[in-house]
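Hi F.,

I've been meaning to write this up properly since the lab meeting, where we talked about keeping a consistent format for the predictions we share between groups. The idea is simple: the sequence comes first, exactly as it goes in, then the structure tokens exactly as they come out, then a line or two of notes. No screenshots and no reformatting. I'm using this chain as the first example so we have something concrete to point to.
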Amino acid sequence: MSWWRGLGNVGQRKNAGASSSGVLTPKSRVKLGDLSVSPMGLGTWAWGNKVVWGYEDGMDAELQEAFNLCVTEGINWFDTADSYGTGKIVGQAERLLGKFVREYPGSDKIREDLQIATKFAPYPYRVGSQSIVKACDETLERVGADSLGVGQLHWAPPLGWQEEAYWTGLAQLKADGRIGEVGLSNYGPKGVARAHRFLAGLDTPLASNQVQFSLISRYPLDNGLLESAKSLGVTSIAYSPLGLGLLTGKYNAGNIPSGPRGIIFRRVLPTMGPLLSTMGEISSARGKTMSQVALNWCVCKGTVPIVGVKTLPQARENLGALGWSLSPEEVEGLDAAAKRIKKQSVQNIFQST
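Output, unedited:
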């Protein structure tokens, strides 16, 4: 199948589909390179991940329903990775995503507007630019497509091992039409600038950088990453915008998830009182959930958040994060409360400078 072929030409409009008040809706479109994507994407880390998210095969039917709802409401891009599926089957998220697209019951026109952004892990055994080309071909096989919206390097390899070779591979994939745009993940301001220069020498633009970002993970604000990326024309994609669930308002000292997330929750949750209180006040005044407030804050900061979905209620709630906007005063209040947190969420160990 080739439902993503040529989608770099889909609409050159910015914020098309915005409401009459100018706020972004699920049907709005923002720019990611030359692609037009919804102002929020759907993340697939939990699809196939048994260790962190407790994935089981029996979840697939509801995952399909959640996917269908998001697509029907206007979400048109989905983030995945060739490493997703830890503890189950590596690459399972890509397989499921391809299956869900094929089995989406809506129109072909909607299906053809979909974009997939995947990430290629810089495993030590991947040597040379052709290793990234091979990784992409393996992803295309799992997904069941002959091109993708965005190909990203999942993280910067330690000590720069093969880094320029990986970037060269991404540039080749774009030139060959296997991907529409080139992106990075977990890169800091220095790395983004370095990659941008290198790719420019290959006549290849850098379209995006995906980074952990939320009210409790403000690294991209504190070190100027968002601002520097914007100056280079690089779209900042915010992953874990709900802080692994800490910002949903659903957890407290007596209700902490098991597994790896529980370790982080026990460290961070006790310090989040002022922020959760401010979020609660805004959500009550607005008639929104705390999750919707947290996601809308990311949009207000100029990022394109990707949020995980496992159930229909989660899908409906996440969609409600768009179609309205926090006021400047509300954003300022959230910023002030977030700065009072003594222990921010642990930054991803793959984050580089």
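Notes:
The two ends are 38 Å apart (CA to CA).
The domain at 7-253+291-327 is CATH 3.20.20.100 (TIM Barrel).

If this format works for you, I'll send the rest the same way.

G.
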